[in-house]
Amino acid sequence: MNRFFMIFINTIRGFANPAYNFLIAIFGIKSFGKEDWASVISILLWVFFIVFSIGWGNREYLIRAYAKQPGKINYLFYSNFLSRSILLPMGLLLLLFFPLNVAIWGVTLVVCIHTFNSLDSLIVYHQKFEAQFIADTIAFCVVIGGIFYSNNFDLIFFLKLYSFSFLLKVITLLITLKLWKEKIIFRISISAFKNGFPFFILGFAGWLTSKIDLYIVDYYLPKSNLSEYQLLITAFVMLQAVAGFVMVPFTKHIYRLTPEVINKIKHKLYISALPIVIMGSIGIWIIMEQFIFLNFSLKYYILGGFVALPAFFYTINIMELIKNGQEKRILTINIVALSTSLILAILLIKKHQLLGVLFSVCISQWIVFVLYKLNSMKHSTKSFISFFH
Asked: Which keywords does this Swiss-Prot/TrEMBL entry list (predicted)?
């Protein structure tokens, strides 16, 4: 029962953050219009890009390191966090793209998110998912309160609000983890970058694959289209991410489980895939068309469902490859997916607008599915059956 409760709490926790961001976007657009709120989205795209770069694959690397050296958790955490913090001046790149006052608060937000994200490895390892849910909820209330409080749109105000909300999240997690009770021992070393580099490359390729469509829409189409597309794709990314949320409690155990146990977990995830995606897609259509009135045709939502479905069938394959030290295969697949999505989106966006971009994302997801399953067949003697493992 405890395991099911942990899965439930983590699924809620994992779903809450994108759901909160989704609701913030809805209320932001409703309150200030698509054009103004798109300016928030634009700078957040660059802030998250910088934060991800500074992250350097720390979560995945550290979780594996914690499992191997449980007696050195605090040392590993502080050494990695402080070593990566050397990269924080990357935030100054915002000065090249935004006015000075906007860039300064953008840099402040980078620092706050960097600190918050760094605590994630400890949250996952110690399975303090309730605390992260509480932190996300507090931050959400702060930002939503700011939206309702504001009579006029002010980009600086919302950057300050986001920074404050992430500061509250950091404080909440620090209280939960009680890090001040442990002796701070660390060593700033290049090894933090060397050891985390494979995970960073993997994560960067995957992250860019999941975000490249937003950058393309931001570049090629009007700001109002960016707001509409962000709402739509965020909804289906949340649906897609359910597969990952369910698996997070098993992350630190996956390295010890036998192939037979892993296959049983896979089959349970596969069985749940279609019902979750169908019900989720219907729910997204109801919200988008009956409450937000995006006026997208039904084919957008059918295509979105096909975007979300493949992740339920290849998520555990990714974890298996990491377990077996085959990160290069994941990188290769991510690069293929990124290239496919990028090329198709550029080719289709001018003629088919948002539908063309969504189609490019769908095709890249199914290519990822096929490549992971072909890799599974290649390393199994069960041939066709292994395609579903």
From this structure: Membrane, Transmembrane, Transmembrane helix
What is the rounded CA–CA span in Å between residue 19 and residue 130? 16
pLDDT in tens, 140-155: 999 999 998 888 888 9
Q: In Å, how far from its chain's centre is CA 12?
A: 15
Angle subtended at Cα 209 by Cα 117 and Cα 10, rounded to the nearest 5 degrees: 40
Give the chain's count of helices (H) and strands (E).
14, 0
50-88 per-residue burial string, b: 16 or more CB within 10 A, e: under 16: bbbbbbbbbbbbbbbbbbeeeeebbbbbbbbbbbbeeeb
pLDDT by residue (tens digit) across 299-319?
Answer: 999 999 999 999 888 887 877
Helix axes 223-247, 327-378, angle to 10 degrees: 60
* φ, ψ at 128 (rounded to 5°): -95, 55
d(CA 267, CA 215): 35
